[in-house]
Amino acid sequence: MSKKIALIDKIRSFYSEGPSFDIYVQNFLNKNCNVFQLDPQSIDFKTKKALSYPLFKFNGNITRSEIAYSLNLENYDAILDMSDIVNLDFAKNLQQINTFHFNLPIPTYNSANKKTYVKNYPEYIPETRITSNVSKLEDLLKNKFKGKMIVKDPSGAHGDGVFRITSRDNYNEEFKKITQNEKIEVIAQKFLHYCFEGGKRVILLGNPGERNSFEFVISYRKVPGKGQWKDNLALGGKAILTNLREDEKELCLEVAAKSGLYGIGIDIMDDKSKSGKRISRLIETNAIIATRAYPEAISKTVDFIMEKIK
Fold first, then answer.
1. Which of 58, 205, 215, 245 has the least CB density, counted as fewest CB within 10 Å?
2. 12 Cβ neighbours under 8 A, 6+ residues apart
3. Which of 77, 73, 78 is nearest to 90 (CA)?
4. Domain identity same for 9 and 82
């Protein structure tokens, strides 16, 4: 009997994860699954129903039906949240739906919210402070981070909401703008020594909490575009397959096991220790395995899901 798969994403002219969404659909269709795009804005958690749009291949392209069906979420064999919703109440309600989630909604929320990641992995991240106070940010820039630092919007993605601030900038105005006049807490971090080399994305699959169950799916360098310091592929960076050092593997396995996720994309980057040694630092975790550069990682993720729901 065909499995029924729901990919959660808002109904609009584009997908939150871009081409990766199509790659997931194609892989599930190749497994003879019935695949639907589930509209998160239509979910009624009391009735456990939502509007779902069948997805199919037409003239070589993935196509969404114009007809939606009101379906019970617990009738799906697997649900994948591929939306850009970062909301704890939504995650709590979705996790109450009794089916296989890839990934579990609350750990997914924790992964997307960078303030949570700061609390979960303090031993692996760059030196970090969280504040909305402009004076504190100025003090961090001048004294703690020696005139150069990174400031992040906790809910930013794809390189958006990440800023490099230096003592040469009009930093007072920048801090006011980023914090919306001290209304929003932001993450202030050390600007890593090897930032201009770019970082690495490492994808692992396994069982939440079971370190030895995780397997490395793929790892690739993210090289910034010319004149750029951000290595995001969406901003012109290049992806190049790479190997991992033993310390990088150890960091990734520890983070994966603590994440509560089945599948995780881990972004790491090198810094220089006080003794001058290269050390790996955790930049962020990603609960959605999305990589148009290496679609085989998505194929392996779909294989993993199908094994879980067989």
1. 58
2. none
3. 73
4. yes
Q: What CATH number is associated with residue 233?
A: 3.30.470.20
283, pLDDT greater than 70: yes
- At residue 187's C-alpha, the angle toward residues 183 and 188, to 5°, is 115
Is the predicted pLDDT of residue 156 greater than 70, yes or no?
A: no
Please give the C-alpha separations between residue 200 and each of 111, 244, 296, in angstroms, as whole numbers.
Answer: 17, 9, 17
CB 243 within 8 A of CB 93: no
CA–CA dist 260, 101 (Å, integer): 12
Q: How many helices (H) and strands (E) does the chain have?
A: 8, 16
The Cα–Cα gap between 292 and 255 comes to 24
Q: What is the C-alpha separation between 71 and 73, in angstroms, rounded? A: 6
CATH number at 60 reads 3.40.50.20
